[in-house]
Amino acid sequence: MLFAYTYVPHAMEKMQGFIDFLFFEVWCNAPGNGDFHLELFDGNAELKELMEVFYYGETEGGDFFYGHVERIYALFAALTLAQIDQLKGWYRANNDIEKTCANDPAVQVGRYADISAIDLHLSEQLASFFKGLYSKKLLDLAAVRDKIGRVGEHYQAFMGVNTTGKCPFCGLGDIKGVHHTKREAYDHYLPKALYPFNSINFRNLVPACHECNSSYKLSKDPVSNAAGRRKAFYPYANVTHAIELTVDLVTPDVDHLTAEDVGLTFGPAVVHDEIDTWREIYGIDERYKAKLCSGDAKDWLEQVRIMRDRCGMDPSAWLATVKQQTERSPVANSNFLKAAFLEACQRVGILEAVA
Description:
Blueprint (H helix, E strand, L loop, with lengths): L12 H15 L17 H12 L3 H18 L3 H15 L1 H5 L10 H7 L1 H14 L2 H4 L2 H7 L2 H11 L24 E3 L16 E3 L2 H8 L6 E2 L2 E2 L14 E6 L12 E6 L4 H10 L2 H9 L2 H17 L3 H14 L6 H13 L2 H5 L1
Antiparallel strand pairs: 1-2, 3-4, 5-6
Helix pairs in contact: 2-3, 3-7, 6-7, 15-16
């Protein structure tokens, strides 16, 4: 990805804390702990209050939550201690998003397919529960909102800090900010269709533009493919590497460019594996080449001609100005792609022809 988001703490994190307690203190202690009862939640007063509201109230979201918690408790009660230890390891790993993205060998993630090998019914119940946690019917319940706030409030706080206005996964799409009444969808970076335990973990939830979220990434797995585990960019990394992009053109005929006429080279080499994952997950090569074959790229060249004719600026001097703009604001107006394209034009003699 082109840049990392800054993580913004919020009351919404409290829901993940509820799930942590539920998993470790209730479900994992189910063997030999008797039938399901509300006193199991005595160690977390706020969660117990929610469970009482869900038990005595009549709401679809409350029935969903309480019913799944009770059914999963019964399934955990039949597990061996070794199986529970395995589930604990997967839970911790699936919620350590940063180490999972780094493919840390000490972190072994678990998927629903892995849980199926222990108990198919447990896997199905966990899938139903965790996929439904991040849903309006639950999060919009008054009892839940009173505890953790609203997703929209989190988004506003988040965008008050992350003000770039562009999608970090592609650098092309706009991201709605604090001046919008609507918001972008949060992508489950580790897909909730594949991974249990982290569907309400906001370190696994990242705003993405519609194209990245709904057209390209979908439920693709950034940390695994057919060959096994792999590295991926962590969306909230404290230390990031600026993506280097070189564009090569095999023809000076930019008026009739096709994707086959454009070559893309990415760096730096230190994050080669992460870059490969990023390019595949978000269709980066296809999207960048399409941009360079579009009217936008032709307009970038037209700007060169305008600056020459109206301002007397040599094309090479204009390219230097674009590169300075890119250093200050890489993703504004697709500067990172614009600069790489104009450099490619210079190499094949197009800027010289303009001059």
